[in-house]
Amino acid sequence: MIVKRRVGQDSAPVRPGQEQSPVLRWPLMENNITREDLDAVIRYLQQDDPILTQSKNVRDFERAWSDWVGVRHSVFVNSGSSANLLTMAALRELHGPGEVIVPTITWVSDIASVLHCGMTPVFVDIDRRTLGMDNEHVLEKITPRTRAVFLTHVLGYNALGQRLLDELQERRIPLIEDVCEAHGATFQAGRLGSFGLASNFSFYYAHHLSTIEGGMVCTNDVDLYETVRMLRSHGMVRELDSDSRRREYWDDYPDLNPDFIFALPAYNVRSTEINAILGLSQLKRLDETIGRRNANLLLFLNNLNPDVFQTDFAFEGCSNYAFTLILKEPDESLMRRVMTTLRQFGVEFRRGTSGGGNQVRQPYLRRLLGDDAWRSFPRADHVHFYGMYIGNYPTLERDRILRLCEMLNGLAE
Ligand SMILES: Cc1ncc(COP(=O)(O)O)c(C=O)c1O
Q1: Any atom of ligand 1 within 6 Å of the Cβ of 215
Q2: CA–CA dist 382, 355 (Å, integer)
Q3: Buried b / exposed e along 365-374 (16+ C-beta atoms within 10 A)
Q4: What is the CA radius of gyration of the chain?
Q5: Helical spans, DSSP H, in 155-232
Q6: Of 17, 185, 264, 285, whose CB is crowded by the most CB atoms within 10 A?
Q7: Which residues of 73-82 are buried (b: 16+ CB within 10 A; e: fewer)?
Q8: Which mutation among 131, 199, 204 tests ligand 1's pocket best, with the greatest number of atoms within 8 A of CB?
């Protein structure tokens, strides 16, 4: 029998009056775009006839983001999903069709982008401590047709290991990092997003940094950078950064108007100056808010009953924005009690963690892989049924976190 445990030694007294109210009023995200950010936009809008479409602020945000991540180039787009799409489209353009190794726990756009670009996703189960792809399973899935490993750092936990990096480098297989849920997380001395051929970030409202909607493709590879710049904007040659590359097209296509040379059949996934101003404003406090969120996560995990809930996540280098709550063992009845009680307490949550759980259970993949594919990915399936996340934001009070842990620990029988 699991012994009920009270909140750990770290616990602080509950504020007077709070013990009477069961309501914690805990949305998935709160106050992620502050007065200061909005004021920065308002100041910009007060100019006469301000430029609103992609211009200098987008450039400035891209440069500042590159410096912060530790890469040479960044391309700002209108969502993390668009970042996924452009990265896969550029990969296909530069490396040709083939297989892309992907996780079972990730967002739909990671897989959709592979499919949309005519490539074949090859699925891998997770490592239960990182929630990212099991690195050894990735290596087992590599074939001569592998064009990339597209790895997701789930809920702020680093999924990279040195052996994987060494093997990919030796076999010359590009690594793509999805860092949409892990801004600022690190592996060894580097920020995640600086290790592969390219990386993708999302700035959706619920993430570490928000531009309302938004995303970024980062890379050190100039060919990929220039390709993504064109893909972002109708495939147009005038979007190229390099004068000489642009001139080459002008020379090769003298019958075309230099302003309208479409090198690739592409998209329009640009963002705007307003979104970039929000990003620049938020970036100033990102390191500080990451520190606060990580402290919140530690408090949460240190006060959960480790006999009931998984608490041994790979915390090193982590940059969390949502608490991971995963039952240690399958237990339908406990999961039901957890969900009912969270709802009663006004705590918003998302089942299955990133992307709603095991992707191969989703209709769009059952059509391709059949109804039983989930059987090959038992760890992702455990998270699918017995895992969830709860919002973690800088303004969460310590007392509320401790009350939540106490309430959760009390549900075990
Ligand atoms: C891992 C991951 N990749 C990609 C995305 C897509 O980002 P967006 O919502 O900005 O399109 C998300 C969304 O939250 C995500 O969690």
Answers
A1: yes
A2: 14
A3: beeebeeebb
A4: 22
A5: 162-171, 222-232
A6: 185
A7: bbbbbbbbbb
A8: 204
Q: Kindly tell me the sign of the dihedral angle through the C-alpha atoms of 210, 325, 113, 193.
A: positive
Gap between the Cα atoms of 383 and 378, Å rounded: 9
Sheet of 322-326, strand order: 322-326, 387-391, 349-351
Side-chain half-sphere exposure of 229, counting CA atoms within 13 A = 21
Among the atoms of ligand 1, which is closest to the Cα of residue 154?
Answer: 1
Q: Are 267 and 236 in contact (CB under 8 A)?
A: no
Q: Are 220 and 72 in contact (CB under 8 A)?
A: yes
Per-residue DSSP letters for 377-393? -HHHHHHHHHEEEEE--
Percent of the chain scoring above 90 in pLDDT: 91
Count of all residues that appear for the chain in the document: 413
Q: Is the dihedral of CA 7, 352, 200, 196 positive or negative?
A: positive
| Closest to 200 measured CA to CA, from 284, 48, 79, 379 | 79
Return the SS3 of 227: helix
Strands 146-152 and 175-178: parallel
Q: Provide the whole-model pTM.
A: 0.94
Report the distance separating Cα 193 and Cα 306, nearest Å: 31
Q: Convert the pLDDT of each residue in 254-281 to its tens digit.
A: 999 999 999 999 999 999 999 999 999 9
Taking alpha carbons only, the member of 262, 255, 257, 218 closest to residue 240 is: 262
Regarding the beta carbon of 211 and ligand 1, being less than 6 Å apart is answered no
Instruction: Give the closest residue to 352 by CA, choosing from 394, 405, 400, 389.
Output: 389
